[in-house]
Amino acid sequence: MPQWTDQSTNAKFVTDVWGIGIRAHADEEGLVRQEEIVRCLRNVMEGEEGKVVSTNAAKWRSIARAAVDEGGSSDINIEEFVRALMMNPRTRIV
């Protein structure tokens, strides 16, 4: 159950966009009870939702690894960022 600032956005992405988690629902008092946590854990560990979560997590893991590998999008972007810093005459290397 998201509580502060960006937690609601993060929870939305984890559950609805990336599909790598299950949302825990608060009760009428705004508390996430033990039974709800158990439900979520059982769904992830034993249920069909868990299979979907596992498949999606593997997909995102593969995408992230490809991005940080040599020649991946993150690798290229970091190289370009460092190159731009080095070309800036105001950049000092300490």
Automatic annotation (TrEMBL):
SUPFAM superfamilies: UDP-Glycosyltransferase/glycogen phosphorylase. This is UDP-glycosyltransferase 74E2. It comes from Sesamum angustifolium. The lineage of its organism: Eukaryota, Viridiplantae, Streptophyta, Embryophyta, Tracheophyta.
